[in-house]
Amino acid sequence: MAELEARLTELIEPEARALGFDLVRVKLFGGAGDRTLQVMAERPDTRQLTIDDCADLSRRISDVLDEKDPIDDAYRLEVSSPGIDRPLTRLKDFEDWKGHEARITLAEPVDGRKQLTGDLAGTDRDDSVTIYVRGHGLTSVNFEKIASAKLLLTDRLIAATQPLSSEGAEEFETEDQD
């Protein structure tokens, strides 16, 4: 699966870049007959995508995948922004989101721990990620040893991220009050 995801990333990344987006994650999951190809991208300046951005990227990806046909089975294509409690997939993500709470799952335990939760403290020159783990202090792990990582939804994260637009929000608010 990792090899196929790498191939898909090679095909999808140029399409995202052509639209001015950074590719955050390409993930294929599910079994035969129920596969989903999840593509997360963002605008570098806002770290978000609009619905129109998602539609544009989805069309470009569909065209390329229809032509190259790298996936044997049927699948659903899901294109989205990474969201507020986003996955951290690139080394730069750990630096960009320094000061925010995250959960890091390691491929193998370090000091008897496979999961680290705490405030990100950034990255080091040797491609290590540093996190302040409550009760354990600063912990550094090589980026390559991270199986997965994501930001945790906190008031601090909500305050640091602003929606691109709140247009139409009042419509939903009045519907809920009826």
TrEMBL record:
GO annotation terms (biological process): ribosomal small subunit assembly; translation
Keyword vocabulary terms for this entry: Cytoplasm, Ribosome biogenesis
Domain Ribosome maturation factor RimP C-terminal intervals: 88-154
UniProt xrefs under InterPro entries: Ribosome_maturation_RimP, RimP_C, RimP_C_sf, RimP_N, RimP_N_sf
Transmembrane segments: none
Database matches in Pfam families: DUF150_C, RimP_N
Keyword Lyase: no
SUPFAM superfamilies on file: YhbC-like, C-terminal domain, YhbC-like, N-terminal domain
GO cellular component, one term: cytosol
Domain Ribosome maturation factor RimP N-terminal: 11-85
NCBIfam families tied to this protein: PRK00092.2-5 (NF000932), PRK14636.1 (NF011229)
Job description of the protein: Required for maturation of 30S ribosomal subunits.
Protein name: Ribosome maturation factor RimP
Species annotation: Sphingomonas gilva
